[in-house]
Design brief:
Length: 210
């Protein structure tokens, strides 16, 4: 058992390093692409306002539960853990409403924001709610060391977000925030759906073997 945990930890560290390098590379290329085709103002709105909004909602809604539920997993009553984790969805909904209002009404600016900014804010908020709908299976994957699953799904999600975002920018550069919002929603739907589909297949396979 200890050897399996050690092996999985080493795999996790290796895959995380590769994944972080991939993320940085994709982010750099996307930033260069946005600056070239849209401009620095839109890039600033995406990186500073919208991604900060996503980070705030996910951090405050998810991280306290993840930290609490991933400690001493052997002694967990998983039925109670699952019931507790469903609380993250309404909490995320409230956080999304609160921060969405702050981003749109409180954080005012003298400069004119790009078109579809309001749509992008609510798209990011909705994508956070969709992503947290699969938090239970994400936690199970982390607790039971499904290392490759996380890395593969995260990588595919980045690819889907990029493949969705880039053609929309090329087709209509002035609606960059519309493209960003759509890409966020598509990626979140994929991420949540793929987690449930994988564990549906995995449980079905275990039942058939037993």
């Amino acid at each position: 058992m200890s050897q399996n945990i050690l092996k999985s930890s080493l795999e996790n560290a290796s895959f995380n390093i590769i994944f972080q390098i991939l993320c940085r590379g994709v982010t750099f290329v996307l930033n260069a692409f946005v600056v070239r085709h849209v401009g620095q103002a839109v890039l600033g709105v995406i990186n500073v306002r919208l991604l900060l909004l996503e980070s705030m909602i996910l951090f405050l809604s998810r991280e306290p539960f993840m930290k609490a539920c991933l400690t001493n997993t052997i002694e967990h009553n998983w039925a109670q853990v699952v019931n507790l984790l469903w609380m993250t969805v309404p909490i995320c909904f409230l956080m999304s409403l609160m921060f969405g209002y702050i981003w749109l009404s409180v954080l005012s600016t003298s400069e004119t924001l790009p078109s579809y900014y309001t749509f992008a804010v609510w798209a990011v908020a909705l994508s956070c709610i969709i992503e947290l709908s699969s938090l239970i299976v994400q936690l199970v994957a982390s607790a039971f060391l499904f290392v490759r699953l996380k890395i593969i799904l995260d990588t595919i999600m980045i690819a889907i977000r990029t493949v969705t975002f880039v053609p929309l920018i090329l087709h209509n550069p002035e609606n960059a925030l519309l493209a960003f919002g759509i890409a966020q929603l598509v990626a979140a739907v994929f991420y949540t759906t793929s987690h449930y589909l994988y564990f549906h297949y995995y449980i079905k396979k275990l039942i058939s073997v037993s």
